[in-house]
Amino acid sequence: MLPIVLRRKEGSMKKRIIVLASGGGGTMKFLHRYSQIADAPYEIKSIIADRDCGAVDYGNANGMMTKVIKPWRSRIPEVVEDIRSINPDIVITNISKILPEEVFTCCKATFINLHYSLLPSFGGVIGFKTVEMAKEKQSRIIGATCHLVTAELDGGPILAQGAMPVDWSEEIESIEKNVFRIACKSILVAIMNLCDIKNSMASSDGFMYSPSLNFDDKLLNESFWASTL
């Protein structure tokens, strides 16, 4: 049976996405690669970073608009101006900075963030440090959360979550790999919902997602995941 590819409504415009980045851009690579193999209802228009990083390198190599703004804190008005100039629909805040309200209220775009834990657990922690903390607590279920950005750090309304049971006798690298993949699928669920894609599909990885997946994750084979590294 061929995989199901979800199509946009004929004539509908793709949602414009800006990514605010600090690191390698794994999640951004995932979203971009997915848009290349499926008729995704979004397009990554620009990457704005607070430092030279892998996300900027990837954007430059793939024809995206990129800009590095540093020092970041003293140039917030420039950040706001750059965001407004693109008129985005969605801004992904994968940046190692606490954004001032003047940034996430600067336009009508929906500002979203991705966190490698099941919020509210381990809020305010960056990257996979959340997995280390979950191991210290011997958490039985771990995962990822995509949420709206508000003035409360990691406290905005939740858009999507993915979860899995965990066996801490496994190699930590294997656990982090699964959390990363859950995070990627969770943010894609959230973005597809923001783009009014409301399908409900079963996941192929055996993990739990809420809302349910609204895309066919059978498209995401090992070769695909390797391209996001």
UniProtKB/TrEMBL annotation:
This is phosphoribosylglycinamide formyltransferase 1. InterPro entries: Formyl_transf_N, Formyl_transf_N_sf. It comes from Bacteroides uniformis. Pathway: Purine metabolism; IMP biosynthesis via de novo pathway; N(2)-formyl-N(1)-(5-phospho-D-ribosyl)glycinamide from N(1)-(5-phospho-D-ribosyl)glycinamide (10-formyl THF route): step 1/1. The gene is purU_1. PANTHER family: PHOSPHORIBOSYLGLYCINAMIDE FORMYLTRANSFERASE. Pfam families: Formyl_trans_N. One of its GO terms (cellular component) is cytosol. One of its GO terms (biological process) is 'de novo' IMP biosynthetic process. Gene3D superfamilies: Formyl transferase, N-terminal domain (3.40.50.170). Keywords: Hydrolase, Purine biosynthesis, Transferase. GO terms for molecular function: hydrolase activity; phosphoribosylglycinamide formyltransferase activity. Its EC number is 2.1.2.2. Residues 15-181 form the Formyl transferase N-terminal domain.
